[in-house]
Design a protein that fits this description.
Structural class: alpha+beta
Number of domains: 3
Strand content: 15-25%
Domain FAD-binding PCMH-type: 173-346
CATH topology of the largest domain: Vanillyl-alcohol Oxidase, Chain A, domain 3
CATH architecture of the largest domain: 3-Layer(aba) Sandwich
Organism: Ficus carica
Keywords: FAD, Flavoprotein, Glycoprotein, Signal
GO molecular function, one term: oxidoreductase activity
Signal peptide: 1-26
Strand order of the largest sheet: 19-16-18-17-21-22-20
Length: 610
């Protein structure tokens, strides 16, 4: 049995809740950058293996490698100007700091400054700039990377202002100045002349339902930083913690924990290919949420790169920002299938009445889908009950007999297994699947789809369920998922993390429809799910009608290009975060007042009280 103390997790990641940041525009930036680094032997980043343009044979495969929604990979959807796959957190910092230093309109020199133990990219602006000695520079981020070495300055006859050490002279062996005691920084004299800003998306696992980590419709052109190479996992069983980099998947985390212990686990998502960075920032619910809460509830530390290029841990970022990034499974397992003809409606209605109150060691997820009726050959609706129990089969049977005898659970329906094996069952892998499947970063669910979400505070009436069945039978491949809440989730305040869907929630609902490649009229499926969402309105949470951030839905609203209004963003923001949205916007106003990190549903900065 997994104990509370066994699942506290430290998370090292870099894609914070705002997920995107800016980059400066130049038609020749990419080509010049590649030419520069390919002729230099002293650069920090192996660009040929980390930077991919549309002309590169690997560009498409990298872009598609983790994207699960093929709808967002259609030719008509904008593609990034290039993809950068950093190998180290300092690479992410360098990419950010390069933009912060000024507009990189032309890259003219690459140099590794060994005497100062710094490896940086050097850019030249086509506007006036000054070279400022570090002690005299304006306040800049710790670890700021855009520095100028003496060789660079001499090569281009750059003047220096406010120099702390005048002893530059000329080296006797080479026509280079001697190193200064402190590095120099680019500092634009006229920041207002900066070129057009681009957006830069950060992707951890690529599972965003609307693809905002690898697609931008409000900002073009844009580039993508893919954290796929940042996937180190350090598990400390004695301390009951693990440091996890943002590019690691849920499956990798589960696998590495299981290598160290058979009784430890982490309460994150059922989907094993989810990138942990994006998953945590949305809350991270999973099959153990009724016992241990969300994945975000079990984060005890984090490292991020903020809008100023600083790498911050929990202490350095402060509790407001740490709060904002956290939201802003052995056991026995059984699957039982019921159809409408077998009384699925009454069974599901009873399930809604009891599930949020049963033993918190029990989690029963419900999948509702359209199947072929074996006898008549017609379509029918089936409900599948997929359960995880943190205990043995005998105790599970006693719990079920007391709380939900209508399900008819028997000993033969139960399989006692380790926690790590239970994750394969819950993720619907076939029996006997090797554990190494958890290390596969690519999702097995890759299709064209559209999804929406709701939260239930009261059971859906039987008559409304009948209406749901009728509408599902009208669609080709619809699915509805009911995830039970209650238990430990009722004990955590709505304001504890940005994820507010806690006490009083019986179920989270996900509606999903998918279609195949070559569909002549994909819009009809999107239209269907929008109508289904409207139909369910009277039976779900209201004021606001709540939604789950990690089931992102741009139908709820999105930011406008270059014009992010708090009032307009509140329309969708309060659905995801309720009253926490105001606090998130205030934190944003403090740490990123210029809205450096942004996308279609990023948090707008709020600089004044509301």
């Amino acid at each position: 049995m997994v104990s509370k103390s066994s699942i506290a997790v430290k998370l090292a990641y870099f894609a914070i809740f705002l997920q995107t940041f800016s980059w400066a525009k130049s038609a020749s930036t990419t080509d010049t950058f590649i030419q520069c680094v390919s002729t230099s032997s002293e650069v920090i980043v192996p660009v040929t293996t980390t930077l991919f343009t549309p002309n590169n044979s690997s560009f498409t495969s990298i872009l598609e490698s983790t994207a699960t929604n093929l709808r967002l990979l259609e030719p008509s959807v904008p593609k990034p100007e290039f993809i950068f796959t950093p190998l180290h957190d300092s690479h992410v910092q360098a990419a950010l700091s390069a933009q912060l230093a000024g507009t990189p309109l032309r890259i003219v020199f690459c140099y590794q400054q060994k005497d100062l133990e710094s490896r940086v990219w050097y850019l030249v602006l086509d506007q006036e700039f000054d070279l400022v000695d570090l002690p005299f520079a304006p306040p800049l981020a710790a670890g700021f990377s855009c520095q100028i070495g003496p060789t660079f300055a001499a090569s281009f006859a750059l003047k220096i202002s406010h120099q702390s050490s005048p002893k530059t002279g000329q080296s006797s062996s080479q026509n280079w100045p001697k190193p200064w005691l402190a590095p120099l920084l680019f500092f634009p004299l006229f920041p207002a002349f900066l070129a057009k800003i681009e957006i830069l998306g950060i992707t951890s696992g690529g599972h965003d339902y609307e693809g905002v980590s690898y697609v931008s419709e409000i900002e073009t052109p844009f580039i993508v930083i893919d954290l796929v190479n940042l996937r180190l996992i350090d598990v400390d069983i004695e301390d009951n913690t693990a440091w996890v980099q943002a590019g690691a998947t849920n499956g990798e985390v589960y696998y590495r924990i299981a290598q160290k212990s058979k009784i430890h686990g982490y309460p994150a998502g059922i989907c094993t290919s989810l990138g942990i960075g994006g998953h945590i920032t949305g809350g991270a619910y999973g099959a153990m949420l009724r016992k241990y809460g969300l994945g975000a509830d079990n984060v005890v530390d984090a490292r991020i790169i903020d809008a100023n290029g600083r790498i911050l841990d929990r202490e350095a970022m402060g509790e407001d920002l740490f709060w904002a990034i956290r939201g802003g499974g052995g056991g026995s397992f059984g699957i039982i299938l019921w159809t409408l003809e077998q009384g699925a409606t009454k069974l599901l209605y009873k399930h809604q009445q009891v599930m949020d109150k049963v033993d918190e060691d029990l989690f029963i997820n419900v999948l509702i889908q359209v199947v072929d009726a074996s006898e008549s050959g017609q379509k029918t609706v089936a409900t599948s009950y997929n359960a995880l129990f943190l205990g043995n089969a005998n105790r599970l049977l006693r719990v079920m007999e007391k709380s939900f005898p209508e399900l008819g659970l028997t000993q033969k329906d139960c399989v006692e297994t380790s926690w790590i094996r239970s994750q394969l069952y819950v993720a619907v892998y076939p029996s006997g699947t090797p554990l190494e499947i958890l290390l596969r970063p690519k999702s097995t669910f890759r299709t064209y789809f559209k999804a929406k979400s709701d939260f239930l505070k009261a059971p859906i009436p039987e008559t409304a369920l009948e209406g749901l069945w009728k509408r599902m039978l009208e669609e080709d491949n619809p699915r509805t998922f009911l995830t039970p809440f209650g238990g430990f989730m009722n004990k955590i305040a709505e304001s504890e993390t940005p994820y507010p869907h806690r006490k009083g929630i019986r179920f989270m609902v996900q509606y999903l429809t998918s279609w195949r490649e070559g569909e002549k009229d994909p819009e009809k499926h999107i239209d269907w799910i929008r109508k289904l969402y409207d139909y369910m309105g009277p039976y779900v949470s209201m004021n606001p009608r709540e939604a789950y951030l990690n089931y992102r839905d741009l139908d709820l609203g999105k930011n406008e290009r270059d014009n992010t209004s708090f009032a307009k963003a509140s329309v969708w923001g309060k659905k995801y975060f309720k009253h926490n949205f105001i606090r998130l916007a205030r934190v944003k106003g403090k740490v990123d007042p210029d809205n450096f990190f942004r996308h279609e549903q990023s948090i707008p900065p709020l600089k004044s009280a509301v």
